[in-house]
């Protein structure tokens, strides 16, 4: 069960950290309407994290709640791919990061609805509807910005060039990914990658953006080795629970 | 620095209509700024249906709505005031009709 626990953490932490990052936009988005749009997506992601981290706590069997797992772990115990923790940058960079992860979650969850693990299958069936909207929103914006003005095009192309290398980690299959696929818990990452790649190409073409080349990566967020950015996220996210243990709404 | 209002002021205004559930009419719920109609639907979804208020959304560019002139209210609406016979209360309902 320990393997499934770690795999569920990978999924949950990806949603949790991306949701926390998007939450930083609240009150700062370029338009009131976008402020609400981004906050809604952030709340969907935090909601996904709640379901997954609750499940992880049950799998672990040490009585840890979703809050214990979300707020009281150390840096190296978070298992999200490090694309999620990359800084927001300008609105365009946040949109690029969002498109790349939305498309990943969409292809992953669509296939996970037939998981041999009933909890994950039910989770995926619920969450795939949310993620489909997220990609509609982020993809729509990427096309507007890419195919917009000279400046907006240049900005999102540079964000894409900057963030693209981190996408490789999403699909880098390790022993845990392989085991989950063998058990039918999760789809093969190679299959997810092919579908993701086709979907991303379609969006990039509409956005008149050029797809950067894949390069070998040395990121291991999925094994708990993170960039320095995660430390700052955790400092903000965990502060309340650390300062006032057990505080509740 | 861009404040939300500065940016959204550059976008055209849309009027939003939401159908609460199947069989009901779309009702005007408010307005919002968006760069185009697709974005207006997304914004309307995020602003006006986040608490399950609806199952269908219409958006209409505000500039395409032709409104009656408040200065003409007297001639447009006053004449109906004393035509109470236009209300259906003057019809006698036969006893056989139970469910009207």
Structural summary, described in words:
The complex is a heterodimer of chains A (249) and B (100). Chain A has 249 residues and is mainly alpha-helical. Chain A has helices spanning 2-23, 32-60, 66-71, 91-112, 118-146, 150-171, 175-182, 189-206, 229-243. Chain A has a single domain, classed as Ferritin, core subunit, four-helix bundle (Ferritin, Up-down Bundle), CATH 1.20.1260. By secondary structure, chain B is an alpha+beta fold. Chain B has helices at residues 4-10, 37-48, 73-77, and strands spanning 13-19, 26-33, 56-61. Chain B starts with a helix and ends in a 23-residue tail after the last helix. The mean pLDDT of chain B is 87. Chain A binds chain B through residues 29-37, 40, 133, 136-137, 140, 144, and chain B through 2, 4-5, 7-8, 11, 32-35, 38-39, 42-43, 45-47, 50.
Keywords:
heterodimer, A: 249 residues, mainly alpha, 9 helices, B: 100 residues, Ubiquitin-like (UB roll)
How would you sum up this structure in a few lines?
The complex is a heterodimer of chains A (249) and B (100). By secondary structure, chain A is mainly α.
* Number of separate helices of chain B: 3
Give the structural class of chain A: mainly alpha
Low-confidence stretches of chain B: none
> Number of folding domains of chain A?
1
Strand order of the largest sheet of chain B: 2-1-3
**Biggest β-sheet of chain A, characterized?**
none
State the secondary-structure class of chain B.
alpha+beta
Query: At CATH's second level, what is the architecture of one domain in chain B?
Result: Roll
Tell me the distance between the termini of chain A.
32 Å
- Would you tell me the overall average pLDDT of chain A? 96
Summarize model confidence as the mean pLDDT of chain B: 87
Oligomer: heterodimer
Shape of chain B: flat
Q: Which segments of chain A are poorly predicted (pLDDT under 50) over 5 or more consecutive residues?
A: none
Largest sheet of chain B: 3 strands, antiparallel
Q: What does the overall shape of chain A look like?
A: globular
């Amino acid at each position: 069960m320990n393997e499934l626990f770690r795999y569920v953490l990978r999924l949950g932490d990806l949603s949790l950290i991306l949701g926390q990052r998007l939450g930083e936009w609240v009150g700062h988005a370029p338009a009131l309407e976008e402020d609400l749009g981004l906050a809604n997506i952030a709340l969907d992601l935090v909601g996904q994290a709640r379901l997954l981290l609750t499940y992880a706590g049950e799998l672990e069997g040490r009585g840890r709640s979703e809050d214990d797992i979300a707020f009281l772990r150390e840096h190296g115990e978070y298992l999200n791919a490090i694309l999620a923790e990359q800084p927001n940058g300008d609105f365009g960079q946040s949109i690029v990061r969002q498109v790349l992860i939305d498309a990943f979650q969409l292809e992953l969850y669509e296939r996970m609805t037939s998981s041999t693990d009933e909890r994950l299958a039910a989770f995926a069936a619920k969450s795939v509807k949310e993620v489909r909207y997220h990609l509609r929103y982020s993809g729509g914006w990427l096309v507007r910005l890419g195919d917009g003005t000279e400046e907006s095009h240049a900005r999102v192309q540079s964000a894409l060039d900057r963030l693209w290398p981190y996408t490789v980690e999403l699909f880098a299959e390790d022993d845990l990914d392989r085991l989950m696929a063998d058990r039918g818990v999760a789809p093969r990452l190679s299959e997810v990658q092919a579908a993701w790649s086709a979907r991303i190409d379609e969006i990039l073409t509409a956005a008149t953006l050029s797809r950067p080349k894949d390069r070998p990566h040395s990121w291991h967020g999925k094994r708990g080795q993170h960039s320095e950015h995660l430390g700052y996220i955790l400092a903000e996210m965990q502060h309340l629970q650390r300062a006032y243990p057990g505080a509740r709404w | 620095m861009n404040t939300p209002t500065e940016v959204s002021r550059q976008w055209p205004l849309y009027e939003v209509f939401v159908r609460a559930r199947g069989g009901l009419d779309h009702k005007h719920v408010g307005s919002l700024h968006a760069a185009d109609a697709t974005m207006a639907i997304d914004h309307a979804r995020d602003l006006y249906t986040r608490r399950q208020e609806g199952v269908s959304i219409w958006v209409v560019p505000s500039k395409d709505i032709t409104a009656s002139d408040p200065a003409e209210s007297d001639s447009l609406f006053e004449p109906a005031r004393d035509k109470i016979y236009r209300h259906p209360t003057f019809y006698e309902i036969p006893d056989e009709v139970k469910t009207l």
